[in-house]
From TrEMBL, chain A:
Coiled coil: none annotated. It comes from the Eukaryota. InterPro entries: Centromere_Cenp-M (IPR020987), P-loop_NTPase (IPR027417). Its main location: nucleus. Gene3D superfamilies: P-loop containing nucleotide triphosphate hydrolases (3.40.50.300). This is Centromere protein M. Keywords: Centromere, Chromosome, Nucleus. It is found in: Chromosome, Centromere; Nucleus. GO terms for cellular component: chromosome, centromeric region; nucleus.
UniProtKB/TrEMBL annotation, chain B:
It comes from Collichthys lucidus (Big head croaker). GO terms for biological process: CENP-A containing chromatin assembly; chromosome segregation. Belongs to the CENP-N/CHL4 family. It holds the Pfam family CENP-N. Keywords: Centromere, Chromosome, Nucleus. This is Centromere protein N. It is found in: Chromosome, Centromere; Nucleus. One of its GO terms (cellular component) is nucleoplasm. The lineage of its organism: Eukaryota, Metazoa, Chordata, Craniata, Vertebrata.
Length: 184, 345
């Protein structure tokens, strides 16, 4: 089974590579455009709909420093697709090189179980969970900044900080009463 | 001008939106320059109607002229109400040589024989479309001009588009059309929509079609888009394949605007987890309706983005292929005049 491995390739100088996985292929386009504008570091963005990635690109693909799963909470398909893609990642990625980004969390049509499900998934994998607002350019800019912070650490470009260390601080936790009915 | 003509004019002016009044009256062309000057298009509609009624009295116009105005308005704004498509079948040998004056005479005479009294107005539009306005009456009353039927036909094509036709009037219209166009039968094309242009373009294939090729993009170098070299799509090839298949099924560019597609299922219920329903002998009747402001565009996007699996299922690709949006689906075995298919789980 072809899985993406975190350390099987050599890094490039002052470069960070990020992989955005999104079933709808919407937010990843605007995030990519904003990410490559970063001046201090060369950011390479790879876009995918789901994993596994095609074998043809194996040679030309650089070492991926951070994998971001973008889940649209209004779609069950989005969540299932992200969950199914997780098996194609080498376990080494889950030491701080994977992050979940969720959109439309404020939407009234989202069932609470889905957000709880994403939370539990992120917590069980010790990954951070970011909430993004994808409809405005400000929202995209904010999401980009947060991703860049994590990306620079994951690519080893920040002295004295490693991805594993950062993930201890940023990882998602579930409140102990998550399975209790809420007050809606 | 008698009462019914007056009422017709009032109804018509109320129906035409204020911004279209001026252009419609210009197109009608019956007002003299002086009368046009005297009309004030900014006054409220009831005042405007009074002024127009005065002018009509001055010029001695009758209901006939008012129906002409109505027809001018409808020809320019056909997208109101539902249009239904019909197809003429089995042309006779001289069907291809039916020309306009012959058709007009024949249609008027056949229809008047079948459904008297009836008031028919035929007009040829610039793009070779023949517009027919029919006001139906019965043995007790004069033709009712408040509920006319409009028919659009392009000569030498087998398609006819109709709006506002009741089931009682249908046989008369069908018979008159069949006889005057020299065909043997007419059938319902199972296509309906709000926009006349859209259903016409769909049936006559006036949209950009994409044909299957082995080498879709001409030269890779020529297609260098200005996208950032730092951004790379991993699954670009499969995305391109999906897009190609979606375009092959539905077409490229602007697609005719259909509003809905209806599937009437008369198939047996099939679900292994539900024994009681599966054991029933009778088919499980169910109607599935897809609705959208631009249905074909939505379906093409579904196929291109992977929501609908590619290659596109014939249930969806038959809409542009067969030019219909009403399907009846039965379990194996041919039905009389309905679309039949194998059931899919």
């Amino acid at each position: 089974m072809s899985s993406l491995k975190p350390f099987s390739k050599l890094p490039a100088l002052n470069t960070a590579n990020i992989l955005l996985v999104e079933s709808e292929e919407q937010l990843q386009q605007s995030l990519a455009a904003a990410l490559v504008e970063e001046a201090s570091v060369t950011v390479n963005v790879r876009l995918a709909k789901s994993l596994p990635l095609p074998v043809e690109n194996e040679e030309s693909r650089p070492r991926i420093d951070l994998v971001v799963f973008i889940i649209n909470l209004t779609s069950e398909l989005s969540f299932q697709s992200a969950e199914a893609s997780l098996k194609y990642l080498d376990p080494g990625y889950f030491l701080g090189k994977v992050c979940f980004m969720v959109t439309n969390a404020r939407s009234a049509s989202v069932p609470t179980e889905r957000l709880d499900g994403v939370r539990k998934l992120a917590a069980s994998l010790h990954c951070p969970l970011l909430f993004a607002e994808d409809q405005t350019s400000d929202g995209v800019t904010n999401a980009t900044e947060r991703l860049l912070t994590m990306l620079k650490v994951a690519a080893g470009l920040v002295p004295m900080a490693t991805a594993l260390y950062l993930s201890h601080l940023t990882r998602c936790t579930v409140p102990p009463d998550i399975d209790q009915p809420s007050f809606d | 001008m008698d009462d019914s003509a007056r009422r017709l004019l009032q109804r018509l002016i109320r129906r035409i939106p204020a911004q279209m009044l001026k252009t419609t009256l210009e197109k009608w062309g019956r007002l003299t320059a002086a009368q046009k000057q005297s009309m004030d298009f900014t006054e409220p509609k009831w005042a405007f109607t009074e002024r127009l009624l005065d002018i009509c009295e001055e010029n001695g116009w009758t209901g006939k002229h008012i129906t002409e105005l109505e027809m001018t308005y409808v020809i320019d704004n056909p997208n109101q109400g539902m249009w239904y498509a019909f197809q003429l079948m089995d042309p006779e040998d001289d069907a291809r040589s039916v020309e306009l004056t012959h058709f007009k005479e024949q249609f008027k005479s056949h229809l008047s024989e079948l459904a008297r009294p009836v008031s028919v107005k035929i007009k040829k539009h610039a793009d070779d479309a023949i517009w027919i306005r029919i006001a139906w009456g019965d043995s007790f009353s004069r033709p009712n001009h408040l509920k006319p039927t409009y028919v659009v036909h392009h000569l030498q094509t087998p398609y006819v588009f109709v709006t506002s036709l009741t089931s009682k009037q249908k046989p008369f219209l069908s018979q008159a059309l069949v006889l005057s166009t020299r065909h043997q039968a007419i059938k319902d094309a199972s296509l309906s929509g709000r926009k006349l242009g859209a259903i016409r373009d769909l049936l006559m294939r006036q949209y950009q079609q994409v044909f299957p090729t082995s080498y879709p993009s001409p030269l890779a170098e020529r297609n260098e888009t200005v996208s950032n070299p730092q951004i790379e799509k991993e699954q670009a090839k499969s995305a391109e394949n999906r897009l190609q298949m979606a375009c092959e099924a539905f077409g490229d560019g602007m697609l005719p605007q259909l509003q809905s597609s209806v599937y009437k299922l008369e198939t047996k219920f099939k679900d292994h987890t539900n024994k009681t329903m599966t054991e029933r002998e009778e088919p499980f009747r169910c109607v599935v309706k897809f609705a959208s402001t631009n249905l074909l565009e939505s379906l093409r996007h579904c196929a291109a983005s992977g929501i609908a699996s590619t290659p596109v299922t014939p249930l969806l690709s038959s809409i542009p292929l067969k030019g219909r949006n009403y399907f009846v689906i039965k379990d194996n075995g041919p039905g009389p005049s309905s679309q039949t298919r194998q059931t899919q789980n």
